[in-house]
Amino acid sequence: MSTGIQELTVETLSHELTGWDYDHDNDPNAPPNIEAELEKLQPDHGHNDYSQLVAIPISEEEIEAASKIDYVKWKQERAEKPHKDGSFEYAEHSYLGDSLTLAWDDGQSYVAKNKPFKLQNGLEVTYGQINGLAGDFYGTVNPISDVKDLHEQQQRFLRAWYWLAQDTTRNPAEAQKIINTLSTEVEMVQAALDKHQDPSTVYPKIPDVNVQLQLYTIARPAECPSYLELAKINWDHFGADARTAYNACHSYALQVAADGDLQLAYAMNAFGDHFLQDSFAAGHMRTPRRKLHGSVGAADLCAKFMHDEDNAIGLSVKSPIGRSWHTYGDKRLLDKEDISNKNEAWNAVRASADEIYSAWTTKKVPACPNYAAWEYAPILTEVSSIVAPLFRPDGQRRKDIKKRCQAKYTNNYWYWSTAAEIKLSGLWDYPIKPTSDCKI
Ligand SMILES: [Zn+2]
To answer: Which of 129, 112, 133, 124 is nearest to 57 (CA)?
Structure first.
């Protein structure tokens, strides 16, 4: 397990015991074969994060539109207008980052999707593909946000980057296989979009690729955990920790740009943008992921249930530039009702890449953490919802897990029993909806 945990235990014991300070490893109610039993409680729909898709700019007119703050909305409206012959525009879709227009070191601008980077180990991947592989598939046993010093955080980022971009014992073959497997999902989402269906309707039908992805990554050396092991220590993707992780990657990439290597800087920045994009998923905003972690996995499963609930029902958010919207989660980024969130996420990713380009041209880097991307991201202290959070930052749990809008809390709970009750309730089966106590 990660080394960051010890320090945190000392910190939490300095105040009164809360639900998450209990000795959950010795939960008297948990079954003896807890790991196998936990397997049965896992939600059965798909994997965590993926499908940050968006239509890509194609025409001159579109490239101009892509520099405006409401580009994604503009694109959506245009895609919905039938042509004179009655057919709909064929919208090409890819990862969010692939819709960027990147100013290149040859003086030209390219749509990211059409300009893959060739990494040191020979792996050829686009900006958007790096967004998808970062963190979820390439990381180390040492989460970036576990250390406080920026230089140390950057060193941790560089080790994660090594496994994606420099290691030749597993790559480029492994990453290529992962991308191919994930493309099934992209194709099914694309097919839904072409039929004007919300992509979230296809998620329950997508074959479970987790088994396949785990097979590709299970034999990795100890420093670089498998796909499922990475998910157990993924607090770099949540809340304030995601900001720390992005800032570490982005600050390093800015320096690489200022030192003259624009392409490497973009590629490294694409890694960091994963954490930026996760910051737009409702389930990543208020889930106390770092706290909801333990050696057997019951706490982590509770974090997943909270993540899924917030993702599905959504949160109301506002950004420092003064925009307000309702955001849903990972699997809804392309749904029509989530267009505002996609628009703001796109603005943030564009600001992130633009900052890299200006560091390359001016040889100056902005001070950490005053980065342009955060101007578009939800302010974490100002998220709100009709749903009472399943877990609060003070360690208390929603008293009645079956009453989503009842803001009554308790310290009297065990993770194992919570997870079992959640699964049994059926209220976390897809699609997850507000319960009858919610006034909507
Ligand atoms: Zn993530």
So the answer is: 112
